[in-house]
Amino acid sequence: QELKLADFQPPTHFIVDTTYTPFGEAISAATGGETTVKVFMGGELGAGPAEQYNRVVDGVADIAFGLPGYTASNFPLTLISELPGVITAEGGTQAMMDNVDMLSDEYRRVQLVGLWNNAPNLILTAEKPVRSMDDLAGMNIRVPSRNAGIVVQAWGANPVSMPAPEIYNAMQTGVIDGAMIDPTTLKSFKLAEVTNFVTQGMDTTISEFFLIMNRDVFADLDDTAQQAVLDAGREAALTAGSTWLKIADGAMADFAAAEGKEVTTLSEDEVAKFNEASAAAVEQIVADAEAEGIPAKAWIDALAAD
Amino acid sequence: MTTSNIPAWPDLFGRATFALAALAGVLLILMMGLIASAVFMRYVMGNPLLGVNEIVQLAAVAITMLALPYATHLHAHVRADIFDPALGRVGRWLADILTRALSIWALWILVGRAWDKAAEAAEFGDATNMLNLPIWPLYALVVLGIGLAIVIFAVQIVLLILTRRAFGEPENG
Amino acid sequence: MADLTIGILGFVALFALMILRTPVAFAMLLTGFFGIWWLDGLRRAGAVLMTETYSAVANYSLIVVPMFILLGNVASAAGFSRGLYDAAYAWVGRLRGGLASASVIGCAAFSAVSGSSIATAVTIGKVALPEMKRLGYGPGLSTGAIAAGGTLGFLIPPSTGFVIYAILTEESIGRLFMAGILPGLLMMALFMLAIWIVTLRDPAAGPRGERVAFRERFALLLKALPLIVVIVVSIGGIYLGVFTPVEASGVGAALTILLAFATRSIDLKSFATSVMETVTTSTMLYMIVIGANVLNPFLSLTGVPGGLEAGLNALGLGTYGTLAVILLSYVVLGMFLDGLAMLVITIPIYFPVIQALGFDPIWFGVIAVIVIEMGMITPPVGLNVFVVRNVAGDVALGTVFRGVFPFLIAMIVCLFLIILFPQIALLIPNSMFN
Ligand code: NA
Ligand code: NA
Predict the structure, then answer these.
(1) Distance from residue C338's CA to the centre of ligand 2 (Å)
(2) Most buried one in A42, A173, A306, C256, CB count within 10 A?
(3) Out of C21, C49, C67, whose CB is closest to B113?
């Protein structure tokens, strides 16, 4: 059986060679060629990144790459991991995959195959450097999620929501002053062209990616094939997680080396100010989640214990 | 006798679908107002409105689905008419029936899926990211809009059979 | 059956449905849906149909389509577009073929607020065609100028064509809009040159208009002011960073409505009519987008895009040879297909090839929009020609197609200039964004 994997990123994306090719080969090898994976990049099975979850639920694709943050209402517990200080960039993927059973309630409409984290979201600004929390006051900052919006607000900025492909224009023309986003976008969305300043050092949100599979298609596989998918998925998550960090490091190094670009690593005092503000916001978000019956504290403790 | 053999009852559907399309028009104007105020709030007041894009997305679905039956009733969908003469009178008539029958078939399956989707989205509380707006009403509007488009197509097939001529042809042509 | 064969059968079915009077949107939707059903079962086919019906429409960027259509409809109902034409006439009507040139300028100016070629041709055609008839213009020249001038609606921002292209290729709408400005002005100038040449050979086709006193010229310019304000605010606002293209469309429409009511140029009834026309047209366009979004996964599943891509590469024609084949295919498809439909069918196939050849994606967007515009006025299916003939009333279709011919040559010249000098398209976006 051929499993169709849908991804909205361009066909040239590094995930194809580093992650999908070994993923497919591992499944094929473990099932003696009975089950294979065919990758459809660039939104060939349907444009619109936000719909990836629905594509798997409905069965447009058998497996899909996506961000839990795009349909945040479905993944409140997963998204607790994106809050500042909950996971580390380096250990996050391992910790989440080790405790993946705790998430099963959230993924009952699909089969979770792999879950990993991006590099931390930094503050990218066009004209005005952010060297202290005071600098951020009143700036219009694009945020990737509702949680990130709450954090940015706690830092004193105005959160603005807009689709990622629009950031370039909005920053260039001054519609927004900056964006809270991971540094790989300096390359992939060409944000380096419109960004002059990057601020890092504080605890910040860390976005998650996942590979999910249609529930019925997974159930129809025999035990060997099911195990093969889960094993290969775990491996894919770990590979993808470390690859993303490496790409982010490279993008940051290139940015820092470019003329006229400035990377601010916050001083200890400033980091403390930022973290104090975001910790209060995180506490509130966790308390709200617990109030809705989401075991946020247990999840945070499990991730920290890993 | 010169009385037309076009029955009057299909006009009822025209008026009903017009009412829905008028609702779509009101939504369109409200959305325009929202987009303009968002600019004002950010640029003049320095206080960006969060989640305008989510409202706009949902409103676009609502507008399209509310106006679709009316647009279908008006035959507003673009088509190429260059081969019409080659089809002949009977060919055009059969083509009009076939197109509508095929469309009804596909749209019927769509309505079924949209119905399931609405029920599932309601059960699982699917909502937008920033504003937490429930999504199931939009799937329900897909059921309504596509469902009424099916009705319009069905009415048009009945008309085609009753009048025995393709759409847009003279009565005694 | 091999997947690729099913894909080719899909194209046959698509054309057969269009011949059988199926609207473009439904022809694509039916081909995609039944194609996936055959290929991969009802579960996946139904899933694609459901997901795309929702997600193709729930698209923030696409909202510029209804917004700009609303802007154009209200401007037309309020008589603002007539003011624009009158002003253009006052300034150039005295020249040989001046009325035709005024029509082209009116089209270009109206294009700056209308995203649609057809809307532009109809709006300016309604005011300009009777005038040209009154002054004894040849029916070929007058209808040709309007049909061709209308295509500027797609090239000069805002443009439905650029929006669809941006959505299909994930390029920036703002950049594409800015890239369309200079080619649009160049095309307008070439159209006027074509008119000059036509009237040089046949002065009777475009007699001179009456002279308008200078004072009157400025007075008429003042009357065109409302629409000029809207144009300056919408395009200037994007350029100065006050708002995004999506916001520009909303602000532009709101401003037009405010001006229309403030100057008492519109009553509630004709405003309501404009809104109803807007939702009807927008729904029709959204259905085309849905249809394309259902068709595309089917083509991907059959491997047709990859096959065509490989085929084009295997021809080994080199960079410009491959570009020539792509452009020629557009001319052929453009004879039969609707512009938007053509864009959504071809771009997913050609875009990877163009990128691999190292062409600038923004530049190719401009090129693609121009060849698609050519399709709007080539026989046998030329939507702009059809609507202009309908507005003109008493002109044979063949006369309009013949009248369009000099303008088609002008478009080809424009195309070659932009291929030779890509800066014509890229100067503004590059200076603005880098
Ligand atoms: Na335009
Ligand atoms: Na044509």
Answers:
(1) 8
(2) C256
(3) C49
